[in-house]
Amino acid sequence: MNTTSLIEAVRKHFPQAVSASHTFRGDATVILRPEFLLEVARFLKEDSGMRMSYLMDLTAVDYSAFGKRPTPAFFASSGVAVSPSSEIPDENPWPGPPGEARFAVVYHFFSVAHKHRLRLVIPVNEAAPEVDSLASLWPAANWLEREVWDMFGIRFRGHPGLKRILMYEGFEGHPLRNDYPVKKRQPLIGPVN
Amino acid sequence: MPIETTDLAPRSNAADLETRDMLLNIGPAHPAMHGIIRIVTKLDGERIEEAEVEIGYLHRGFEKMAETVDYNGVMPYTDRLNYVSPLINNMGYSMAVEKLLGITVPERCHYVRVIMSEISRICDHLTCVGASAMELGAFTVFLYMIKAREYLWELVEKVTGARMTISYCRIGGVKADLPADFADLCRKAFEETRKVLAESDGLLTRNRIFVDRMSGTGIISAEDAMAYGITGPFLRASGADYDVRKDNPYAVYDRLNFDVPVGTRGDNMDRYLVRMEEMHQSMRIVEEALRQIPSGPVQVDPQTGHAIPAAEMVDLAKVGNIEAISGDSAVTCPTLEGSGRAQHASIAADEKRVVLPPKEDTYGNIEGLMQQFKLVMYGHGVRPPKGEVYFPVEGANGELGFYVVSDGTANPYRVRVRPPCFAIMSALHKILTGDMIADMIPTFGSVNMIGGELDR
């Protein structure tokens, strides 16, 4: 399926679930309401037109600093220098981060049978950072979700063993959140067990 | 005195005997764990009943660091993901950012990238097969394969100026063109590599010890492999033929003829055979690409292009003597050979907002100097539009994907890499369970675990 018909198929089956969609640079992207994730994922895996055999990637983005990062060079906007190459022309602009939520959990699916890719984006609020786990559908989600928990502090409902994977038990904070300073150091503790 | 005869019959049923599971901790400091993996196994005799794989010992915060530098500044970090085949990482990252920017590179540049990443793939497979053969006692094969890798790394060094952490790609191009005698050097290196592959094939493929340890161990079915997100040679040994180069062709792979070797049993032996065949296919790709590559001005002809030191060129340009230097090439550092004005158009995209100018322009005229400064000054640099892209390439271990989010500033907002061996490692406990403890060595060797990309 091409990108538009992929999005249309998801929209047709789950009219309430899809809150937005776009095809920036040819990547079919569907932004979902969190409560429909499991249903849509099962549909993506089992529907004969979809057949998403792969959960290729699962990650998150912390959008809390989006558009708020300071421009490091003071003269870049002072009128002395022309702002360089800020917008290379784009006929199909990206609609921006999904809504007001701080985080977005991003899934990349791929179908070996149909050779198509689809990106699902789930906005996640800072107050209750929790989404459903896909580990029951794709075992690949197990470690990927552990990594998202480790790096962003987003919990996955129904995950078989949500614990840190890259950092150690006892590490404080979630390093890929924007409020975690790049240069922050923590004492490396010994093995717990 | 009569000798007391030993009663050889079992005294009781085996079921009544007391059995105790043993916990065995392997790694992280264990030579077969390649340094940085810990596997906690529960053993019943020598059989692995349960295994728990622990990773993260080499976590350097690649994704966090990528948010603090500009787009070209991420390139050296990508070298250090899969440090055995850094060119493929370079290519994946730069193609992801090029997709975000909406630019394409010249055809010759595509070919150069394909050639270099196939050479890297051979290096990667040589390392993997050589190291896992060594762990099974075949030390000679390891030395042979490292010898072949050395020939290829010399080739890589000739092109990029470095052997491992090469940072060869740039957003919108590559650092420098291929040297003039590249095709010859490549032919010679491949000759040696083919010899080594034939020798190693003779030493391993029908070797009783090797075959006994490799076949029938570490089995995973294609369905399981897909469910765990496994791609690359590890998947193809199980019978599925998914290859990003064939199924989502990028660069110029759709114009090149090559076969995707596929196994049937999904065991260590098949993975070894798939990797051996992939090396031959990669050489075939490089040879065909070298035939197809559109000719560009390869290296500056030393007879015609007058090479003068860069500082001299700057001095001449300062006094406005542009005519005197217009046909000259600047002698900069030796690793920038092949990036002169003559080669620039064929290795870099025609987009002044993204690509650094050739050094002759930087030193020789004000437009070039401004273009350079606009890209390298603090707070300036490549600024893609706001957006998010995912771009997969076929890494040596499988699908290597880069997911890049831009907020329109000079630093990437988020760079995520999908490391191919992360998926394999997440399935490792399942592959190991039921095998003997000695089978762990070939199985783990066939994963080709690269700590840099696994832990990032």
Could you explain the architecture of this structure?
The complex is a heterodimer of chains A (193) and B (456). Chain A has 193 residues and is of the alpha/beta class. Helix content of chain A is 18%, strand content 21%. Chain A has one domain (1-66, 96-184): Beta Polymerase, domain 2 (2-Layer Sandwich), CATH 3.30.460. In chain A, the strands form two sheets. A five-stranded mixed sheet of chain A has the order 1-2-5-4-3. In chain A, strands 6-7 form a two-stranded parallel ribbon. Chain A starts with a helix and ends in a 36-residue tail after the last strand. Chain B has two domains: 62-296 and 382-430, Orthogonal Bundle (Cytochrome-c3 Hydrogenase, chain B), CATH 1.10.645.10; 307-376, no CATH class. Chain B is 46% helix and 11% strand. A three-stranded antiparallel sheet of chain B has the order 1-2-3. Chain B has a three-stranded antiparallel sheet with strand order 8-9-10. In chain B, helix 4 (107-135) packs antiparallel against helix 18 (440-447), helix 5 (139-160) packs antiparallel against helix 6 (182-204) and helix 6 runs antiparallel to helix 11 (268-292). The longest helix of chain B has 29 residues, at 107-135. Chains A and B meet through strand 3 and helix 3 of A and helix 1, helix 3, helix 8, strand 8 and strand 9 of B.
Strand order of the largest sheet of chain A: 1-2-5-4-3
Oligomer: heterodimer
Strand order of the largest sheet of chain B: 1-2-3
CATH topology annotation of chain A: Beta Polymerase, domain 2
Q: What are the low-pLDDT stretches of chain A, counting only 5+ consecutive residues below 50? A: 74-89
Q: Largest interface, per-chain counts?
A: A-B, 53 and 64 residues
Strand residues, percent of chain B = 5-15%
How many structural domains does the protein architecture of chain B include?
Answer: 2
End-to-end gap of chain A: 50 Å
Given the helix and strand composition of chain A, which structural class is it? Answer: alpha/beta
User: Largest sheet of chain B at a glance?
Assistant: 3 strands, antiparallel
Largest sheet of chain A: 5 strands, mixed
Number of strands of chain A: 7
Strand content of chain A: 15-25%
Helicity range of chain B: 40-55%
